[in-house]
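Record minuted for everyone:
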Amino acid sequence: MNRDRTEPIRIGRIDYTNVWPIFHHFEPARLRCAPELVRAMPAELNRRLREGEIDMAGISSFAYGLNSEDYVLLPNLSVSARGPVQSILLFLKSPLEKVLDGGRIAMTTTSATSVNLLKILMEKFHGGHPVYESAEPDLEAMLKQADAALLIGDHAIRASWKSRGYEVVDLSDSWYRFTGMWMTFAVWAVRREAAAAKPADIMEIYEALVASKRISYGDMRPVIAHALRTVGGTEAYWEGYFGGLNHDFGAGQREGLSLFFKYARELGYMDKDVSIEEWRSAGPVAAPAAPPQ
């Protein structure tokens, strides 16, 4: 789908708390280019950006890998962690050994990155062969038919607050324990034709997103207050949650993401090698990345 380039830039926004530090102080109406915000779940934004219905978005890292030839990445923006992330959680009704030996895992379909991270962890690092099933993000319903359930985002957060006796595995923490690397769950991608056609608009939006992130990191209290009002929980929980997230995209995040793509390629979940490219106002340039070890 080729959109009329006279239309305003359309920005996809993930409706998860993990992106709030980037968006909380972002005010599209105050920008000269007057972009439009499109709110959706990660899988829907992945599709809309791929089909050209929107021009830029925070999308699943895996979705970027699948379509990297069509996109460039905005520098210094991501959803990453180096250790526990508290919102990418595998709930185990049965022992992990049973799950690995042909057990059934019900998976939310809202994020391609988390689904494929789970597969990499189960198959490459644990040597397991579970059966994967797609399901709506309802923990009790998922575990009626499965031995384990993968939840992400706010669904995972709310489920983790309720004590049900399940063992819970934080996939980001597992990735770090096995690799020692950052895990990047989402990146900010721009369609190449939009970057080429409207570089000034892209730059204005990019600078506003980075400024919003900077303000949030200077004082996270407004973001935490918003989480308390809309999601619930406690101030201490949200301080720990946002404290465990990172929204930069530097050398460490690129290195970890390159390793993630490498493993996905080895296991057959990705059919090509991925070259990570960042956008610059003068044009896209290859991002420096250390080779995976």
